[in-house]
């Protein structure tokens, strides 16, 4: 990594040191003579710093008219008013941290832009950011630890505008001053940032920067992207095979379910038929029983009528029972004539 981008937050800083903005002159005063080591910036503090820088940079009232010193006074005041339980920071600490964030996020943006341009097949945005971070770590020899800052800055109009303007290598006149592998360092502070030891040189033109970047692209990086794409394709192939196997299993299970449902319906139909046959048999038996009971009652009644002694009956009763007895005799004769075998 370029020497101008190392983190200076470990240097001793003044305890309780603050920066006050004057409404008239815009001057800053540092308070506290005792110097001690401050803690490193946390991810929360980085987020507050990035948001403070964006809010002051994009101020629609004073954005185009603020000078560098007054700009950073406003950024420091905005940061210290929003840092919550975290310690307040001096202007030097904040500008040094911003230079570090600017450099690291700028480098990562170059790797991410290259990943987006190559557009490996089957990779989501999250996959691309992970791959870009892996490329960053491989080339820069340290991990990219400011993904939280990049997520805040990447879609901001000011970032995008400055990136289009500054997306080129610094025109140092020699290869030793160019960033490793030709990845771009984007000066996101433009005219507002604190002075940096690597700034002040006129950048090369856009076409020259593109040619230098294309020439400096290493075969190792290209091979890594290719291997990553192949691994991704193989993963999708395996996933497709697993999907096909799962679909085949589902189809087989559905066939089994259909066959079981068919057998179940057939079994229910057979059971219903048996139930209907049993019910018919029961009804037939009840009808037969009722018929037998009726015949038994009729026979008993016929026997009672035939047993009546007509000589002991009154004239009218005698005529009535005599007619009944004659009917019973005729019915017996008729049943014998039409009985089985005749």
Automatic annotation (TrEMBL):
Q: Which residues form the No apical meristem-associated C-terminal domain?
A: 143-285
Protein name as catalogued: No apical meristem-associated C-terminal domain-containing protein
User: Acidic residues bias: where?
Assistant: 1-13
* Coiled-coil ranges from the UniProt annotation: 261-305
Which InterPro entries does the entry link to? NAM-associated_C
| Keyword Chloroplast assigned | no
Record key words, sorted: Coiled coil
